[in-house]
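Homework-ish question, so no full write-ups if that breaks the rules, but can someone show me the predicted structure for this set?
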Amino acid sequence: EVQLVQSGAEVKKPGESLKISCKGSGYRFPSYWIGWVRQMPGKGLEWMGIIYPGDSDTRYSPSFQGQVTISADKSISTAYLQWSSLKASDTAMYYCARLEGNSGYDNFDYWGQGTLVTVSS
Amino acid sequence: EIVLTQSPGTLSLSPGERATLSCRASQNVRSSYLAWYQQKPGQAPRLLIYGASSRATGIPDRFSGSGSGTDFTLTISRLEPEDFAVYYCHQYGNLVHTFGPGTKVDIK
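A: Not a homework solution, just the prediction itself:
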């Protein structure tokens, strides 16, 4: 059974750094792109970027390029989303999700449960 | 970056009625690489349709997708109580994907 299990909720202060995780199981992790999706409170889904764990090829939305870093460690089947300096506007639910194929031109088929990040002074 | 526009923003219907949701792209979506997802409060999105018109595993046949190029449609033939939710389209025709802003289907 394919599963994506995300790390737990975080409460941080502005300016702090953060790295959240997404661990895949039940499939060959290096061979499928993993994406990150932001959902601000009461708002829609925003595509942030994707990574291919096999070679760490990464693509970002222009809206998130330079604001976050997406990485992966294929040896432990885990993808990451990190911030070097959080802002209050980073408060949101963050989902990881798997792309169905290995080309990058695929829909998301499996989703993590989400990680709620709250940034407040 | 391809911008997706969904209409209407909110659709108020009764159970048993037909729902027609639109997703329009700012440029051609290559190979009809367009998916639809359903999201209920407190839940992760769920894949309904991929490739513009193919139903995902386990999705009831009252859900159907159509369209190509820049205009796509999700149709729910007869709304069931569990179908009241928010629906998002997603284009994956290039390596920078985008989502539409969503259509909320609520009970009239």
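Now go work out the reasoning yourself. Hint: Residues 27 and 91 of chain A are 31 Å apart (CA to CA).
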